[in-house]
Amino acid sequence: GLLGTVTGMVNMFDGLGHGSGFDGGEAAIARGIAEALHATELSLVVAVPGYFVTRLLDRRAARLRSELEQLR
């Protein structure tokens, strides 16, 4: 996610540098911003559910540890 965001920002500034201000590089700037936002979106799509699954598994592991301690 972070790598894609940085790459998108680099492409955006590259487009800005190759155009004359905002005249020639508008499409490249838009592509760079879109790339950065897509990378950020994909990261969030993976990270947020992963966070909740991790929390769920941690609680289950704690419950199982407690049950094992009681059996011992």
What does this 3D model show about the protein?
The chain has 72 residues and is an all-alpha fold. The chain has two helices and no strands. The protein has helices at 2-18, 26-71. Helix 1 (2-18) runs antiparallel to helix 2 (26-71). The model has no long low-confidence stretch (mean pLDDT 83).
Order of helices and strands: HH
Helix share, percent: over 70%
Report the end-to-end length measured between terminal Cα atoms: 45 Å
Low-confidence stretches: none
- From the spread of the alpha carbons, the general shape counts as rod-shaped
- What is the strand tally? 0
Q: Class by helix and strand content?
A: mainly alpha
Radius of gyration: 22 Å
Q: What is the average of the pLDDT values?
A: 83
Count of separate DSSP helical elements: 2
Taking the sheet with the most strands, its summary is: none
Content of β-strand: under 5%
